[in-house]
Amino acid sequence: MKPSVLVTRAIFPDVIERLSQYFDVDDNQPDLVLDATALRQRLAGKAGVLANAADRIDADVIAALPGLRAVCNMAVGYNNLDVPALTAAGIVATNTPDVLTETTADFGWALLMATARRVTESEHYLRAGKWERWSYDMLVGMDLYGSTLGILGMGRIGQGLARRAAGFGMQVLYHNRSQLPADMEQSLNARYVSKADLLKQSDHLILVLPYSPESHHAIGAPELALMKPTATLINLARGGIVDDGALAAALRDRKIFGAGLDVFEGEPSVHPDLLTVANVVLTPHIASASEKTRRAMANLAADNLIAALDAGPQAGKPATVINPEVMPKRR
Ligand code: GLV
């Protein structure tokens, strides 16, 4: 008998077909919302799950699923998973790094440019029929070229952003849990500074750090108060890293120039105050959403699931394991 797996969200049909060669697949192609109770019910009796970043798999869920052996996220972020609890239970956890790095960095650049040059605000202005004549200060924005880019969280995506900054003649400052080796700093032309200096000196600040209890509200009212009134803030990382209420107030009071947000606290809900300020660009968590990259993410998550459940050509060797220490003692 084939092991059973759950795919929690709709996904490319050929990926479901591929999984079906190895598993009895419980899919969700109608893409129904599975709340915590429904998710737990659908996980009963499953050996593995191809999960989405919104599916919370916590210690209680894990304790109720003695047959679960692999949790494979179709996302690079994995704050939806209780990794220590998975590891203690001998369950393999995987994510999808690398395949989305450049697409996500591209989107960070799109948000940055849209925010600094007020692209969406300009379009709304035009569509509303407000464009009657040229004016010297109509929708003026902030320059990218020659400005200082701050990157909070210098992982793969942060490094992709730093590489892009070179083409815009930007100085790159960064802050991270650990400083990069000197040769990497040199090749990225990036200088390590304290978080306070990053906040004070950046013309444009992009957040690309993982969400964790330590990074909860890493940007709140005190941090926003350190930023330049001409600065922009881009959140490409996770909701909860920014205190969205405090940000909406700072934008309303022009404490900073603008913000571009792809992720939100409590998404898909958006803080109502953010919807009332003009100087923010809002997108629905689409930074990795190119056709090619979403396919690559789905295929990597599926390959991880197949391998983690000891099937397919890479049996026992999933490519991108979050908790490699579990491998010798996995269920
Ligand atoms: C998207 O947010 C991801 O973590 O891949």
Query: What does the radius of gyration come to?
Result: 22 Å
How much helix, percentage-wise, in residues?
A: 25-40%
Mean pLDDT metric: 98
Shape: globular
Which structural category do the helix and sheet elements fall into? alpha/beta
Topology as a string of helices (H) and strands (E): EHEHEHEHEHHEHEHEHEHEHEEH
Order of adjacent strands in the largest pleated sheet: 8-7-6-9-10-11-12
Largest sheet, strands/sense/barrel:
7 strands, parallel
| Beta content | 5-15%
Please name the defining characteristics of this protein.
331 residues, 5-stranded parallel beta sheet, binds glyoxylic acid, alpha/beta
Tell me what you see in this structure:
There is one protein chain. With 331 residues, the chain is an alpha/beta fold. 33% of the residues lie in helices and 14% in strands. The chain has twelve helices and twelve strands. It has a seven-stranded parallel beta sheet with strand order 8-7-6-9-10-11-12, sandwiched between helices. A five-stranded parallel beta sheet has the order 2-1-3-4-5. Helix 3 links the parallel strand 3 and strand 4. The longest helix has 18 residues. It is globular and about 70 Å long. 43% of the residues are buried. The chain binds glyoxylic acid (GLV). The site of glyoxylic acid has 6 residues, from loops.
